[in-house]
Request: fold
Amino acid sequence: MLAQYLPILIFLCISTVMGVALVVIGGLLGPNKPDPEKLSPYECGFEAFEDSRMKFDVRYYLVAILFIIFDLEIAFFLPWAVALESLGVFGLVAMFVFVIELVIGYFVLWKRGALEWE
Reply:
């Protein structure tokens, strides 16, 4: 049974050796000419003017959570739709519960004002 995994082990070893070799060769042969211009902090074309630990508005996080909700929704709908016939009623009920959770999250974000752009 372990003989079936030998090609996978060989593939992993070869890919690891190739990855390490390419990084080392790139580091040794690549250009390395640091100067003050390249080593200076860069933020949108000008020097940073505020502390990097400044507080963000809560709406930024709400929009990020909203994106995650819709991203998860799309990521789980396609495999579910492909396998729906083999999942049966259990799969339909499980996806219904999942969609209800997403809708609740959507309404929570809506109530907190994440969809209002000022």
Notes: The mean pLDDT is 82. The chain has one domain: 2-112. The CA atoms of residues 5 and 55 lie 50 Å apart.
